[in-house]
Each structure stands twice: as C-alpha cells, then as structure tokens.
Amino acid sequence: MTDTLFDLCGADPGAVPGEEPGADPEGAAGPLCEEERLARVAVTRIAGPGDEVVGAWLRKHGPREVVRALTEGRPLPGASERRMAGYRLRGQRVDPERDLAAADALGGRFICPGDPEWPTQLDDLGDQRPYGLWVRGRPSLRMWALRSVAVVGARACTDYGAHMAARLAADLAEAGWIVVSGAAYGIDGAAHRGALSVGGATVGVVACGVDVPYPPGHAELIGRIGEQGLLIGELPPGSHPTRSRFVMRNRVIAALTRGTVVVEAQYRSGSLITARRAREMGRSVMGVPGPCTSGLSQGVHELLRGDAELVTDARDVAELVGSIGDDLGPERRGPVLARDLLPPRAARVLEAVPAQGGASGGQIAHAAGAAVDDTLGSLYELQALGFVEREGHCWRLSGTNRADRTVGEG
Q1: What's this model's pTM, rounded to 2 decimal places?
Q2: CB-neighbour burial class of residue 240 (10 A; exposed 0-12, middle 13-18, buried 19+)
Q3: Cα Dmax for the chain
C-alpha cells in the first residue's frame, strides 16, 4: 500500500527535506488537493496527536513529502533514530483510502487545514495543530466553533458538580451557545446531557476514533452526540485511547472554543491542563466555585486565585466570551421588598419604629429626626400599607414586619 500512497501523493522520490519539496509547503494559497488530503490521513496513522516535530515538518515541507520521509525513514531534523523507526513501522500499515471509507460508512469525514470547514482558531496551536480532524455528524464544525464554550471537570464528580455542569450547559445551549466537552464520565457527560436535554448543540472531542464508543458506559450518549451534534477526534477509525492521548485531546478543546469553564477539579485534574492551554492562547478561563471542604474544589479555587473568572451561571459565561455589548448579563441584586419602594421620609419613620414593643408618635418623631406632624402623617400611611399598627397612643410594627426586622438586624 505504501507505493500506491507515494504514487497518489506525487512526491519526488529524490526530494530531501530541507530542499524545495514537490508539494506546496503548508500555508500556500489554494484549495487542498486530494493527494494532500490522503497524505494527511496517512499522517494520522503514523504520528501521534500533537507531535511537534511532525507538525514542524508539515509546516515547512507539506504533507506529501512528509509522508514519504516518514515511511522511508529518511532522517529529518529533530527526530531520533528510535523515533524514526517507530514512524517507519507504523508507515508500513497505512491505507488512507480504507480509513476514509470507514469514516464514510458511519457518516463521517476527514477535514484538514485549508478546507472550508476547518476552524482556523486551531492554528493557534502552532506546530501542535492537528494534522486533520475526523468528524462525525452533519453540522459544519467551523460554524459551530464560532460560538462555542468548553465545559470540563472531574470524572469522579459530586452530585453538586454534575448538577451545575448540566444546568450551565442547558442554559448555554438555550442561549444559542455550542457546548464542547470530552465525552468522559462525570462533568463531561453531565455537560453533554444538559445541552441535549434542551435540544441544544454539543460537540464531543474524543481521544480515540470517532467510531469507538469510549468510555463504553457512554456508548448511548456518544451515539446521541454523533446524531444530534458532532463528534471529532484526531485519531483514525478504530483507534483506542491512551493516557497521553487524553492529555493531547485537551489542547483541541481549549483551542476550538472561545472559553473554558471548569466545574470541579482536583489539583492534578486533566481539566486544569485544558484551562492552562486556553489561557496560553488568550481564551477566557472560568471556574465554578464549590465547597471549600471538598477536594474536588481545590483545583477550581486555585484557578480562581489566579486570573480565572468566577462564574455561577450561563449569563456570567456569555458576558465573558460573547460579543461586547451584545451578551451582557443583567444586573445582579437581591429581591425587591415592599419597604424598598417607600418614599424616603416614610422609610425613615418606619426605621424609627422599635422592633419590640411600641412607642408614641413623639418618641418615633424624635428617633427619626422629623417633626411630630410629619411623622404622624407617615405613620398613618404606613398603617394603611400594613407596615405598622396602632394600639392606643402607641405605634408598633405589624406582625410580619416585626419578624422581618428581627431577621434583618445584625
């Protein structure tokens, strides 16, 4: 299959990295040709996600020449002989057409830099930019990513964390935001379910092939995401996750979205890696506070001690990542009480009525610093409104207002 791939890619067998390659170097203008697409598909089999050495070669020499170098094992700058041997071994089994057919069979596709659907914000990853993305689902990834927010956090989350993630995702989805997460147990799953529960849009970024339901317990959820939203990943069909692939997956979540919200995380949580990468790329980083007694709050609170923003609902998030002037949250204030609507003079008189027992009109006028006649006028107004009541020559708070005054004091 290797010789066939070389023929498709049209690379010059005598080309040497460092010289002008046969393919246009990455970044050249014009649409992506089919040969370059096949070469990029092959690279997803040969090199692991986020391989900066391969990313630098792609940028300098273009995908077709890089595939030839990787499969033939010709020395390339920055790679040890051991690494080159690994590339050669994996390059013997590449079959890009088979991988594309497998993706097509489940309604998937492969997109790369230069495609109209490619989200250009992923270019912020530099040499760690994905070689391409395997996508499952009908919507345009580029369009969805323009108004997207990542909601991530602990796998072993608490009921509080799951509730906050689901509520946050549902409210964001209802406000027209795309919720992005990693399809894992815990906060990720709660976020996806929250968005789906209101008919919203969600994107699952997986650390395996988009045809592999991982974790197995989320097979149904992952299927729903693929049908109602988008599943994306860097690994070709049939690939299974490893610990390092989860770590590298997080950089895609951070780069793809306009901001990252962390809901529950311990100090060594992978979601903190996502937050750090988001901060490095100038994205908004947000955290939902939790109980100070919970170990799952420690990582989030550490973020909040730095330059992360505290958020408690979707309005807070939208204000931080939305368009200036268009996504402002409403002013936050407590409930408006009936006494808040009183005229200033009547409010002063009401404050002068003692909380316990009663007082004469003169005593209340003295406490309020007002004339007796004015005070009596206000007291009769307050009586009509139900704030005070009269017993003989004394005025006292009505039963409800006595309870309110007692609670509010101190």
Answers
A1: 0.77
A2: exposed
A3: 111
Distances (CA, A) of 348 to 115, 367, 369: 69, 9, 9
- Residue 86, SS3 per DSSP: helix
Radius of gyration for the chain, computed over Cα atoms and rounded to the nearest angstrom: 31
Tokens (6 digits) for 194: 């929250």
Give residue 338's pLDDT: 74
pLDDT at 19: 38
Query: Cis peptide before 215, with omega less than 30 degrees from 0?
Result: yes
DSSP string computed for 153-205: E-SS--HHHHHHHHHHHHHHHHTTPEEEE---TTHHHHHHHHHHHTT--EEEE
**pLDDT tens digits for range 297-326:** 999 999 999 999 999 999 999 999 987 445
Q: What tens digit of pLDDT does each residue of 56-92 get?
A: 999 999 999 999 888 876 777 888 888 888 888 888 8
Fold of 137-321: Rossmann fold (3.40.50)
Q: Please give the Cα distance from 271 to 273 (Å, whole number).
A: 5
CB 260 within 8 A of CB 254: yes
Residue 194 and residue 168 in contact, taking contact as beta carbons nearer than 8 Å = yes
Closest by Cα among 266, 232, 227 to 249: 232
pLDDT in tens, 220-259: 999 999 999 999 999 999 999 998 899 999 999 999 999 9
Asked if residues 210 and 231 have their Cβ atoms less than 8 Å apart, the reply is yes
- Tokens at 122, concatenated: 């992923």
Q: Any idea where the domains of the chain sit in the sequence? A: 2-96, 137-321, 338-408
Fold of the domain built from segment(s) 338-408: Arc Repressor Mutant, subunit A (1.10.10)
Residues in the chain: 410
Q: What is the distance in angstroms between the CA of the first residue and the CA of the last residue of the chain? A: 81
Are the CB atoms for 25 and 15 separated by under 8 Å?
Answer: no
d(CA 231, CA 274): 18
Residue 153: pLDDT over 90? yes
- Lookup: tokens for 98: 């088979």
Using an 8 Å Cβ cutoff, are 354 and 390 in contact? no
Residues 259 and 152 sit within 8 Å (Cβ to Cβ)? no
Sequence-separated (6 or more) residues with CB below 8 Å from residue 92: 2, 71
- Cβ(70)–Cβ(44) under 8 Å? no
